[in-house]
Design brief:
Layout: H1 3-14, E1 19-22, H2 31-34, H3 39-51, E2 57-60, H4 62-66, H5 69-82
Parallel strand pairs: 1-2
Helix pairs in contact: 3-5
């Protein structure tokens, strides 16, 4: 299935055009999250869990994950798996 067809099907089923941006700037995270084992993942996962029923897509900003080195890439890999199909 073409990306456009898949997106249109999701838009129709969700009745929403909302695309949620995932831009986790570590320096702006709440202090309580900075103490987590995987703060970028935890922050974004909570956003996904709370917005999935209302959104048609998620847009990951790779630069914020890349800035955290290997920990950021690991968080990104886990996050991709957490996004609903």
């Amino acid at each position: 299935m073409h990306f456009t067809n898949k997106l249109n099907k999701i838009i129709d089923s969700q009745n929403s055009l909302l695309c949620v941006g995932l831009d986790p700037d570590f320096n702006k995270l709440p202090d309580v999250l900075k103490k987590e084992e995987d703060p970028l993942f935890k922050f974004c996962k909570e956003i996904i869990d709370n917005t999935a029923p209302y959104s048609s897509a998620f847009k990951i900003n790779f630069a914020f994950f890349e800035a955290e080195g290997s920990k950021g890439w690991h968080a990104l890999e886990r996050l991709v798996q957490a996004i609903p199909s």
